[in-house]
Amino acid sequence: MFFGFEQKDLEKGKQAFRTDATHDTEEVPVFTWGDESYDGLGDALQEGGDELNDETFGSVGLVGKDFDFSNTTLPKSSGLPNEQALPPQKFAEPASSDTLYALRRKQDFTTLDSDQPFSSSSQSAESIWDNRSLLSSLPQLDGIFNQSKQAFAEAPVSELPMPQTQKWAPQSSNSGIRTLEEIEAEMRAAAHQSRVQQRELSLQQQLQQEEDRRQQTLHEQELQRQILHQQEQQHQLYLQRLLQQREQQYQRSTPPRMLPASQSPRFLEQQRQLLLLQQQQRAQELQEQLMLEEMERQLLARAALQQQHRQSPIPPSHHRPPSLTPDVYGYQRRQTRSQSPMNNDHRYPGIPQESSPFPSPQNIQLQQRLLSEMAQAEFIRNIQNQDGQGINPVEQEALRAEAMRKILEAEKMEEKRRRKAAKIAYMSRYNDLMTQSDKDFITRIQVSQLVTQDPYADDFYAQVYGAILRSRMGLQSQDERVLIFGSGGGVGLGLNGPKGGGRRPSAMQRMEQQVERIVNNTRKREEEKGVHALQSLQGALGKTSGRSYKAAPRQLLQVDPASGASPAISQAQAFKDPGDRVSNGAEEAAKLGRATLGKAADTTNLIRREPLTQRETLTILEHLYDLVLHVEQLRRDHSLAQDEQQTVEWQQQYDTLVDEIWDSLRVMVPLETSDPHPFISLLIPGKGKRLLPRITRHLSDQKMMTLLTLLVACFSQLDVIKQASVIDYSQDTLERAEAERQTQAFLGNAFQCILPVVAKASLRLVTGLLGLLLDRSNIIMVAQTRPGLALLTLFLSRVELIKADMVNVPEEFEVPTPEEAQQWQLVYDHFFQLLGPHFPMLFPSARMATATDGQVSFDIIDQPAWHFFAALGLHAVPEQQHVLITALREKILDNVTSANKGWVRNDEERQLKLDNVNLLLHVLNLDSSLIVL
Amino acid sequence: MLIFSVFKTLTDQQVTVELKNDLSITGTLKSVDQFLNIRLDNIKVSDEARHPHMIAVKNCFIRGSVVRYVQLPADHVDTQLLEDATRRGDNSTKAIVLTLTIKNRNAETLKFHYG
């Protein structure tokens, strides 16, 4: 743009500038009249009537400088006649390329001069090029115009009409009218070129920008002024219209003479003037305010900038000084509008926009955007600097997200913690509302409600359970589990006793006393209330009917055990009535007792009866349970008896109870009374089976013998024998499960209580029992049941033991007579003979195999059978042994083969098979290993 | 007093309390009083999907009158003794039918006529 100086060739420079100048038409007005390239269009213009220009455009002297874009045409120093500045608008300026060139240079140098002391000579010479800075030129405007007028008057061109001027202009350009100062300046510029070239470039740019801005500002201001004028006019119009309307309204609504003084036209005029005055005042005030706000805004912007430097996360685009509400912009606009007419004169002389206290809204926004962008850039730079090496945007974004997440998390945690604390605080309002004594008081009231006359009985379950548990655990601690009070009442403490073990005994005692007092008071009050109610209140509110007042629900089962109304119950009553039972039972018992011992069956004096019904059985059993519980309670209380007297009394009581139990068992009822025998009927329900061991504990040996005899005699009547075949079905049915359960109950309870009896039985008794069993039962059926097999095994084992004792310790033992032994052998032979053909069927597995094809593991369930055969084999003579082996040969071989050939699932099963076989073979002095297949 | 006595022996055992509102709560029995109010710890509702509001509840006090059933741990109940205990009941006019569901014992439901 500025290349004229390199070659110092002025012509070339001119040429270059000329071409350059054409490009800069936007910035500097270029007039081509009089030039060679002039197209002559100017001649075609109909020019004339300029005489009235002054009147049209206002006075000549005071014309604004808004047309003065380059600010170069203004003459600076006074007293320079050949100043080229021309008054605008009156004449077309005969600007040549030279002048333009010079102007541009001047411009450049002026800026240079203002920056640095260029040279004293240039200043002293008052060259037109020097001291051209804007600021220095401005205050001299008035003078300039005067001088320029003078200068213009002297210049020959000034008098010329326009066409002439066109002709003149080329001459002036060719002749190259230049002053000495001009040339000198050029030379100086050349001398300093190298030094300032860089500077110049930037300055040039700056200047151009400044020019641009100024033009823009001027343009804007012009526009604003126009708008303002329009608006002012509108405002005036509006006011007028308003006033007219009001006047019309008043004229319409009220007669004119009724108008108040304030509504008179003259008053309105005054008011309007006042209004205008006020407007002006307000405008001034607003202006001041705006200035203040502007300052504030700048300050805030700076503060915001600093804030942004400190990593402010707020998006910069939204950043705005808080005091500057959006309304301010509108306000500012209004303000500018209202004050601009007054300030026109001061403003127009090229005041730089930056220093203007009235920036346009666009500029504010622009400035803010710039600031925010700068702040953002700064922020990013800061982040990058902090991390030393540059972080790419992705990482940065991740970092920011992480930070945000952490902040959110922390906030959430804080919120949670606060909520929790608040809740705790809310709940803790009631802390320590009750003192310890309050709590104790309530505890005592609660405890007093639990006080009963018989704490042990009322806490029976817990007491006994605790005792059982302790005995099972081997603990012998007999510390009291019942809190007994002086008045006889007490509280069962349950399993664990008092919880507060750490409490002192004195505290415990105090509590006891207090509780007792409460209880006594309550009791007394209830008594009083009862007496009171009986005497005075009964029937006071009328007769209460029925039981509606009772809280308890109506009884659905209204069974009165005392009345024997129905015939079914009366029948049961016959058994139940104690008096009847005792009298009849005693005689029968005495009779049958002797008979049972002597003979298996006594059919004399027999009264046949229907067997006990289910209901009778259960009733009897419940009665028996009550008795047993009573007896057990007596046994437990036995330790309480201190002296002889009490012991005797206790013994009497006990004996009476045991006798009652014995009678209730109906063991002494004749054998043939019913089928099943009443005693057997009592053993049918599960709870009867479970009851038997608890009864037999209290029975004498004699009675137990009788019981055993009866049981053996009626063995086949037992449900576990009758329904044993159900168990042989391998299907899982409810029936089978029930039979299984009953069998278990029998073997586990009833059978266990006859074991000690048999274990003490003599050979004679055992022989008799086996004979009885053979006589009265279908031995084949009985032997095919688990209880039957167990009983037979028991007998055989007992005899074997007796035989062994005979050999080992004959002196200690009541040696059975040879007749007894012979009798046993007879019975045994008979038994063996009876059972012989059915030996294989004694194995449950064999029975089950025939019933079904189920392949269950039979070795465990066959074990009792193997035991039985072993016991049987012990008593067998060689011939019988042979029979036994022959009968069981297949079974034995089957077991041994499957064991040896590995047809088993595991070693355990194999061992079991061999063990089972060996049980029998060992008895016969054989072993499974001897069997050669 | 019988059931009260029974529950005394069951403290610190796992029980399931079925309420009349069909809520079934399993928890450690902490205490029982004479009204058979029950205090449970570490509770868990059997059907949590239906009772989400109970998930957060860790312990509770149950009024005795709202209990329908209590499932007792079979290992800690001596059935025989319980039968005896019921037989020992006083001969008051009240006839209370107590239904105890004892778990793991063949789903056996024992009904005791109390009194």
Automatic annotation (TrEMBL), chain A:
This is mRNA decay factor PAT1 domain-containing protein. GO terms for biological process: deadenylation-dependent decapping of nuclear-transcribed mRNA; P-body assembly. Residues 35-927 form the mRNA decay factor PAT1 domain. Its main location: cytoplasm. Residues 73-93, 304-361 are annotated as: Disordered. InterPro entries: Pat1-like (IPR039900), PAT1_dom (IPR019167). The keyword RNA-binding applies. One of its GO terms (molecular function) is RNA binding. GO terms for cellular component: nucleus; P-body. It comes from Amanita muscaria (strain Koide BX008). Belongs to the PAT1 family. It holds the Pfam family PAT1. It is found in: Cytoplasm, P-body; Nucleus. Residues 180-220, 276-303, 396-425 form a coiled coil. Keywords: Coiled coil, Cytoplasm, Nucleus, RNA-binding.
UniProtKB/TrEMBL annotation, chain B:
InterPro entries: LSM_dom_sf (IPR010920), Sm (IPR047575), Sm_dom_euk/arc (IPR001163), U6_snRNA_Lsm2 (IPR016654). GO terms for cellular component: catalytic step 2 spliceosome; Lsm1-7-Pat1 complex; P-body; precatalytic spliceosome; U4/U6 x U5 tri-snRNP complex; U6 snRNP. One of its GO terms (molecular function) is RNA binding. Keywords: mRNA processing, mRNA splicing, Nucleus, Ribonucleoprotein, RNA-binding, Spliceosome. CDD domains: LSm2 (cd01725). GO terms for biological process: mRNA splicing, via spliceosome. Residues 2-76 form the Sm domain. Its main location: nucleus. It is found in: Nucleus. Belongs to the snRNP Sm proteins family. Component of LSm protein complexes, which are involved in RNA processing and may function in a chaperone-like manner. This is LSM complex subunit LSm2. It comes from Amanita muscaria (strain Koide BX008).
